[in-house]
Structure prediction request, 168 residues.
Amino acid sequence: MIYEPAEDSFLLQTQVKKFVKPGIKVLDMGTGSGIQAKTAKELGAEVLAVDINTECVEKVNTLNIKTIQSNLFQNIKGKFDLIIFNPPYLPEDKREPEDSKISTTGGKQGSEILNKFLGQAKNHLKTNGKILIVVSSLTKGINKQNYKFTKLKEQKIPDEILSVYLIE
Ligand SMILES: C[S@@+](CC[C@H](N)C(=O)[O-])C[C@H]1O[C@@H](n2cnc3c(N)ncnc32)[C@H](O)[C@@H]1O
Prediction:
């Protein structure tokens, strides 16, 4: 099942449009439908898209964007100017259907996949490289590690607030 772009995708996309410059190297982690990767490519970036879900990898490869199947950075080599991630950020909820969990559920607190990502991303950022993420007010336990977080934008949706962060 491919995540259908939603409010979180569109909020993140507004910032992707601001941070992508022609020629920069961009990694779109958890590319899903490819919305962020496609936006970055249209702005002239050199884009690599990644997803754990092979269905997404097949779909985004058809958009003429190089796409690799990987659990976070497991199969990724190299360093990037910008890494984008709209992660699964919600805490576990027994009512969530199994097939959408991979896109929505980040672990017990909601931040487990994001925290793993942040730990690994350090090795894949160029000097002055940046990360853009979106999370929810429902996401608990984010470990900022040694990064600097700057909130760029937020949006209220029913029962939660979505926030886009620049991480350096
Ligand atoms: C909320 S969706 C975001 C999709 C798209 N980037 C967007 O903005 O609409 C999260 C995506 O992360 C992928 N994902 C989940 N766990 C992952 C992991 N460990 N490594 C890589 N991708 C993962 C899911 O398959 C899903 O496509």
